[in-house]
Amino acid sequence: MKQALQDFSKCVDLNPSYAKAWVRKANLLFSQGEYQEALKSYSQALKLDPDNAEVLNNRGWTYSVLGDLDSAEQDLNRALDIRPKFNVALINRAEILRLSGKHEAALGDLNRLVDAGQRDSAILFARGKTLMDLRRYQEALRDFDQVILSEPQNVPALRSRGETLLALGDYKKAIEDFNSALKSEASDSQLLFLRGMAKESLNSHADALKDFEGALEASGAATTDMYYRLGRSYLLNRQYERAVKAYSKVLSMDSAHGLAFANRGVAFKALQDYDMAQRDFNQALKFLDTQERKDAVRALLKETQRLSHASLLPDPLGEIRSNSSESGQAASADKGFW
User: By C-alpha distance, which of 327, 176, 333 is closest to 269?
Assistant: First the structure.
């Protein structure tokens, strides 16, 4: 491939007006991940052959890889103006529209393909993803079912159908899909994370925690959401010190994460560290965005202040009182968090 790239580079040096050589060079550069250089070569080709729909499609997709979705859409619009039945460009434009948040327009392109008899797995999968974005889960489910019927080991389709089932509240079937996908991708952090969410929804808290820990270990770059879910799972499993560490990690990544402050406060409260709990609840109130959550945190703060005050008073029944630390932790954990 390196030799081929050298050959095409020499070719355009000798004959700069040879459009096909610019295209071949651009294709090779793209395949090697040199997207900026590929973009330059596609642009040179289009100067020589401005109405070449295939090159417009290729340059549009290159723009999308580089994150310039507006330029990508413009190129693909031009390609489809020149060749209205150019299915590859239509699929690519649908994906770019979806990434741009223009879900209805993306769905229109995909429906156009399906209505024209194009019902292969790639198109149905893309439509299913777009329907998911629109929260039209039952329709998305039907498309994913068709994909998996023809390709039972299609991991992206199994993952997406599992996510759809998760959104529909069918947690057991979601877990079945995630299990099937994990047979092929055993260390896929996203699959482990999603399965953990499904298990947590079934109140299988210990198993969910294993998946969240596995997802974090498998992830090359863990997100705030991963650490947040891990912290929540530690709370549900009454592992409060670990919950504090997980939420502290979230806050090191996003210092304005109100729910992380609130839940770390719950963990500190369960550990009877009332001063730290009060600090976190006060911080949470600065960042929470709904009145309902603010009211819930204010209630937790008020209770924590009462407990803090009570802990400073002598206990005349201390000799006969049952072990209050365990019951106090249980009450804190059951009080609620997010």
Answer: 333
Nearest to 166 by CA among 132, 203, 197: 197
CA distance 300 to 264: 12
Give the H/E segment covering residue 102: none
* Residue type at position 161: R
Domain boundaries, the chain: 223-311+323-338
Which pLDDT tens digit goes with each residue over 249-262? 999 999 999 999 99
Residue 150 has, within 13 A of its CA and on its CB side, a CA count of: 11
- pLDDT over 80 (residue 270): yes
How many whole angstroms separate alpha carbon 163 and alpha carbon 154? Answer: 14
SS3 142: helix
How is residue 32 annotated by DSSP? T
CA 254/CA 310 separation, integer angstroms = 34
pTM listed for this prediction: 0.82
Residue 77 CA to residue 84 CA, distance in Å, equals 9
Rounded Cα gap, residues 202 and 213, in angstroms:
18
The fold of 223-311+323-338 is: 1.25.40
Alpha carbon distance 304, 41 (integer Å): 65
Residues with Cβ < 8 Å from 299, sequence gap 6 or more? Answer: none
